């Protein structure tokens, strides 16, 4: 089942995506809901970010080749993380499918994509076990963890490198029926494939993170966990468009513009 | 004016604090509101966290003696930050005035207080200037940035060191009439004063942070910025109670228990 959220004359409505149509619901996928009797063409509605995270969690270094690539660029030895230490991002940066990534005037040219799987938490939970951890996940969507590499290296925190307004495209919808092990992530810029990787070949998987996090943290419906990216990334410039596709979920597409 | 939020038979209501009473309002301090005709004794209501942050920002190293103390403990040279790089905390960790800080079973004894001023954002804003930055602030409350120092040093991020459930006491209320330059922060454990400092003698003040942040980030009503702490901190143990007082705002008091 696919959950999207769309603009209905200025009001955000949840809807169930079926083929090329969307059926608005009363309620929310995080609580109770029922289908309305209407149906829109998907191409004719403006999709919103499928859900605003309550807390916006993000794994950093979570794929082996990405850790190695980052180390090479910094001239350091690769240092694979030994435990799943979660990080944070911020809602101000979220944009929906088709909305523009805006590079600030004073950013360098090192503004890069990172295609990521996003786990959406569906219920309040603490002390999850390896057996029940995935039952806390409502479904999965796609994120692009856009990053300004100069700021990422020079600042004390990731605030503007990762959370500048528009640097967190997410969508197009939440897919609830997902076989994690079969997923493949592809990133394209202007239609050219930049990377392809097995989405689930993470250093620490969704279960690892949820079990570790909920030893100390209560998770709530609407919390989200971005799972990190693999491999090298490349610069995006004004006029580009970037697509992150994850098989059986969908494709998140965003144009890139530089602030005038 | 003092804004508190309290439990009214399972519903959270905002109220205006006057002396030892609280007057419930319809609406919210972030939007429109009007006083109701009722009034409760403050001692007879259960105060809640005065507002759940939309995004929970926190300054790290923001007072000179604190930066020096941390460096000494790590055996490093103190390195004063050169620009206001903001960080993040998470709502799962918030507790209200009088609620218990719970030290997890497997935490070390190095669980320490950090008394902090908290700026509460009252309106949507970007590109604030030094002249108008403070007009974006609804008011100020008090935070205790409880930290497990062993995790803080050993983990790749601050996730459990700073965001374990109950590690972020905040309250008791939001004071809208504050002269920043006159504020004094005092921290007491079991009634004994541990530190006293001029609240506004930060490396980067509220104006510095809001101007820097809003160059790249949109702030929204309900966002909060914890402003950091000064000096050395000390361990808290089962049975202690910790108080953070900021003059003209109030006193945030929380007992400490260790998980059995």
Outline the structure in words.
Chain A is 12% helix and 37% strand. In chain A, the strands form 3 sheets. In chain A, strands 1, 2, 3, 4, 5, 6, 7, 8, 9, 12, 13, 15 and 18 form a 13-stranded mixed beta sheet that branches. A 5-stranded mixed beta sheet of chain A has the order 10-20-19-16-17, with no helix packed on it. With 260 residues, chain A is mainly β. The first copy, chain A, folds into 2 domains: 1-48, Roll (SH3 type barrels), CATH 2.30.30.370; 51-258, Alpha-Beta Complex (Fumarylacetoacetate hydrolase, domain 2), CATH 3.90.850. The A-B interface holds A 54-55, 60-61, 81, 83, 85-93, 104, 126, 155-157, 159-160, 163-165, 213, 215-220 and B 54-55, 60-61, 81, 83, 85-88, 90-93, 104, 126, 155-157, 159-160, 163-165, 213, 215-220.
Radius of gyration of chain A: 18 Å
What is the CATH third-level topology name of the largest domain in chain A? Fumarylacetoacetate hydrolase, domain 2
- Beta-strand percentage range of chain A: 35-45%
How many H/I helices of chain A?
A: 4
Amount of helix of chain A: 10-25%
Q: Quaternary arrangement of the chains shown?
A: homodimer
Walk me through the topology.
Two copies of one chain form a homodimer.
Chain A: E1 2-8, E2 11-18, E3 21-27, E4 33-35, E5 40-41, E6 47-48, E7 56-58, H1 64-74, E8 87-88, E9 94-95, E10 101-103, E11 111-112, E12 115-121, E13 137-144, E14 147-148, H2 149-154, H3 159-163, E15 168-175, E16 184-189, E17 192-198, H4 206-213, E18 224-226, E19 241-246, E20 250-258
Parallel strand pairs in A: 7-18, 9-15, 10-20
Antiparallel strand pairs in A: 1-2, 1-6, 1-15, 2-3, 3-4, 3-5, 7-8, 11-14, 12-13, 12-18, 13-15, 16-17, 16-19, 19-20
């Amino acid at each position: 089942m696919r959950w999207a959220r769309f603009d209905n004359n200025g009001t955000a409505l949840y809807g169930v995506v079926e083929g090329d149509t969307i059926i608005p619901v009363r309620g929310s996928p995080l609580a109770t809901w029922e289908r309305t009797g209407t149906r829109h063409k998907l191409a004719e509605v403006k999709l919103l970010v499928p859900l605003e995270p309550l807390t916006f969690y993000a794994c950093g270094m979570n794929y082996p080749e990405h850790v190695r690539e980052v180390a090479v660029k910094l001239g350091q030895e690769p240092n694979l993380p030994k435990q799943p230490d979660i990080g944070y991002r911020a809602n101000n940066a979220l944009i929906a499918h088709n909305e523009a990534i805006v590079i600030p005037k004073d950013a360098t040219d090192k503004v890069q994509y990172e295609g990521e799987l996003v786990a959406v938490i569906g219920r309040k939970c603490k002390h999850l076990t390896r057996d029940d951890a995935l039952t806390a996940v409502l479904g999965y969507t796609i994120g692009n963890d856009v990053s300004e590499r100069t700021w990422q290296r020079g600042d004390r925190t990731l605030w503007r490198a990762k959370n500048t307004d528009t640097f967190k495209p997410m969508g197009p919808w939440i897919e609830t029926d997902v076989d994690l092990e079969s997923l493949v992530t592809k990133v394209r810029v202007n239609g050219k494939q930049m990377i392809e990787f097995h989405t689930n070949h993470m250093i620490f998987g969704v279960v690892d993170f949820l079990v570790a996090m909920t030893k100390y943290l209560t998770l709530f419906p609407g919390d989200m966990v971005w799972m990190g990216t693999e491999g090298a990334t490349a610069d995006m410039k004004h006029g580009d468009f970037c697509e992150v596709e994850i098989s059986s979920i969908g494709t998140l597409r965003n144009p890139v513009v530089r602030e005038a």
